[in-house]
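Can anyone check this?
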Amino acid sequence: MNRLSEPGFKPLPPRKVFRKRRSRAPWREALFALLNMAVGIGVLVALLQLPARLDSLLVVSKVISTLLKALSRIGEGLALLAAGLAQTFGILLVVGLAIAALLLLANGVFRILRLGIPGLGGVLELPTELARLLLSFVRIRKP
């Protein structure tokens, strides 16, 4: 049975999934690029100030020492273990900040290059077949 022949049938509008994205104004792209670069450089400069204020190798060795002491003394070790875990979390936070700053810096540089070389953004896109293949893996199907 053909649904188009049914009275009152309205076909659905085309899906917006594969529609081309509207491009932003070049000044706005440049502003975002410079903002990403400024934030990335600011975080890196802040992280470069850390060695002047504390010795990173000494901090890492103290973290390991605190964790080993905490594991050796179970009775009073819970407080030391909490301190060691807090120090470990602090180290991981600094590493995460450094990685985020480098990603922001790379993103800003890429955006500046993409503004300067207009075809650069299209070169790095996934081919349509590969994008659809990846989409088929991550799509959530109804049970």
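Reply from J.R.: I decoded it. The mean pLDDT is 78.
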